[in-house]
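Render this sequence as a predicted structure.
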Amino acid sequence: MTAVGAARVASRRGVIRAGRVAGLSLLLAGPVALAFFSGGYFDEPRLWAAAVAWALVLVAALAAPVPLPRSMAGRLAVGGLALLAGWEALSERWAPLADVARHDAQRVVLYVGALVAAAALVRGRRAVRGAELAVAAGSLVVVGYGLSERLLPGLLHFHRGMAAGGRLEQPLTYWNAMGLVAAIGVVLCARVAADPERPRGTAAAAAGAAVPLSVGVLLSFSRGALAALAVGLLVLLAVDPRAAQLRVIVAVVVLGGVAAVAGDLMPGIRALEGSLGARELEGAVMLGVVGLLAVFAAAVAGRVRQLGGEQPVLARHRRVIPVAVLVLCLATVGLGGAIEHPPGAQNPGFGATTSRLGSIQSNRYEYWRVAISQFARHPLIGAGSGAFRVAWLRHRTVEDPALNAHSLYLETAAELGLIGLALLAAVAGGLMGAARRAYRRRPALAAGSLAVLSVYALHAGIDWDWQMPAVTLPVLVLAGALIGLADDPAEA
């Protein structure tokens, strides 16, 4: 090859590499930006996000060495999601609200593009580790923004939704979604802080970031987010049963818990209550508490690294962890099933109060009852995407303006029937297969993504995370990372 030819090849490779880096950067930063547009719930930002996602698919087709999954599991996940988008779109023909069905299909089209782009671009050790850091940092940005007006009330003031009752809701505008984002951030920070291959400074920063994120989990006052966080940490310990990982988890829980309790004791921090002067004082105190505990957490992470701790823990009792996860999931879904609400009852446990965390009352069981009844009436093809909101108005027994069944699985059954459930199961099965294959080949790289997927899988079963792209897209990015790891060990 001549010198000119070699230069052209090198230039072409440089352009391709730059395209991959730019595409990956946009893929990781996009969900954070979308969070500041009500999480992408509404049409315009969601459509812009879909356009960007499919532009990234084009970038991947031109620049990525493997633009589509190679493994059967990865193809099943992507194919199942694509067919689910098509089935959603087709259901517009029998759905009672055609516009809603169309919007639902557009959302899944966005998810297909994001998963394909992630599976192609989040490949290689650096990319996977970078994705973990980016999702954790994105969680910190979103939760930190929401906390900022509580810590600096004299400088910042955000819109407050009446339905939030003082709970942490901005910028997503939904407190339970904020709790989920914070929980995902805590799990990833715990993983990064215990990863022996991370630089010391990165591990320390991750441990420190877990403290404000833990405060965010509590101030959302989301029981589901707390349960999902517990499941995520248990799964993380199951897939990485080293002493170092256990020590970091304990440190994160203890120090983050102390910071969260401190915030709960201050009305201005907990519920945005009190005079401006009192809130400014509480904000200054809380800022000091969070900062001090974050520094302490960073120091603990450094000490854990010095101690080593590569030996496994719970070796004889490791099977207890999956049992504990199962029990916790069943308890989260099942507690309160016998609670009955009188006609006209309002949503129980309202507001920024820890009394919600001790209550087992929830209107979710009414949502689920209506969804199951709707599925029983249309078991094969469902009533059409978006049909739940119509059925809810017809059959509800509580005054609650719900638009979603608060469960991805039950809403899919009600609106898309057994066919929709089968397609969703194909997506889940494909991701589980890819996760298993990735974990067998590169357990250290797969551990964080596996734990995050478990957090989302539980929470999506009890809330409407699927309808908020800014929450779902980071999870799809990590799912794409697992598909990439499962494809080829050389790529990992």
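Summary. The two ends are 31 Å apart (CA to CA). Confidence is low (pLDDT under 50) at residues 336-346.
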